[in-house]
From TrEMBL:
Belongs to the metallo-dependent hydrolases superfamily. Adenosine and AMP deaminases family. Residues 5-320 form the Adenosine deaminase domain. The keyword rRNA-binding does not apply. Coiled coil: none annotated. Gene3D superfamilies: Metal-dependent hydrolases (3.20.20.140). The keyword Zinc applies. GO terms for biological process: adenosine catabolic process; hypoxanthine salvage; inosine biosynthetic process. This is adenosine deaminase. Its EC number is 3.5.4.4.
Amino acid sequence: MALYAELHRHLGGSVVPRVLWRYFQRHSTNLGQKFPEYQEFEEFYTKPRNTLDEYLELHTLVESVQSVETLPYFIYRLMRGAYIFENLAYLELRYTPYLRTPDHLSQSERIDQMAEIVAVVGKASRVPEYPIVTSQILCMHSRLPYEVNKAIVNLAVQSRDYVCAIDVAGGDTHYKERLDEFIALYDYARSLNLNTTGHLYETTDGCYPELLPYLMRIGHGIQIPLSHPELLSELARRNQCLEVCPTTYLKTGTLEDLRQLKIVFDRCFDAGVDIAICTDNAGLHNVRLPFEYENLLTQDIIDFQQLKACQNAAFRHAFAWPYGSQPPASLLHGLLQPEAPALAESVSN
């Protein structure tokens, strides 16, 4: 029975190493020739990087092969793994649609093609044999022009059947010079009743309190409890949820030890701030959501009661979960309850 909700997973980083390697081999790409043996490719693809910017460069490797034609191939395998190996009942996939369009086209042509990308991702995500509730988060990007980012917001509004929110990504260091732009875009999105999240307070370079009032959830946000705990009461008042992705911080060099997250969880629980535990880039990390849970438990960063609270918070803050705040376990309990009297009667007879 699928039980979990994943609120922060990038389409580019979701492709597990073996699937990506097989694709490169079958299509005789440069990377396929560079890494004829799988083990070498896995080591290259999943090894830790020194900085967030260096880590994000790996996204371009996958974006270059995710097109209108190939997205169904990758998404089918993503959905299959999410259902069979991760027990996901709900999944929000985030990505920048502009970066899945051919780069030889003009900017206006690429903007026009984004709607087709969203439709392809939406249809490919609905796989009957792997019944997961899915939705998309469209990412504005710190290195894209204002016109493209505004077009992404407008596309999200026009594609509510497939899209539940917007985000900003591309490395939080790069927001600083364009902060007014992103504030205006988020304000515009909220005026159109669009849900919002954003990569913020992930690193010490990404602390922009001016953006916080426009976000319903915060992508990562770990620097708030670590370095700016005075903000936690305001987050609790706004009912903002942190999307914490444990393995990411080791892969990007943001943290040296996973146990540093104990402060994050303890301070958030004390302040009444919800946390949803996520994977971010499950393929890049070669770590699935249940293993994120297990790592936090075995290293005594959280206990089972706190894990349950985080799992419930993920459904409560999910933008497109159709059953309100009810997680699948409570729905299953409700389905089983009516059978109890009938079972008792059959036993007594």
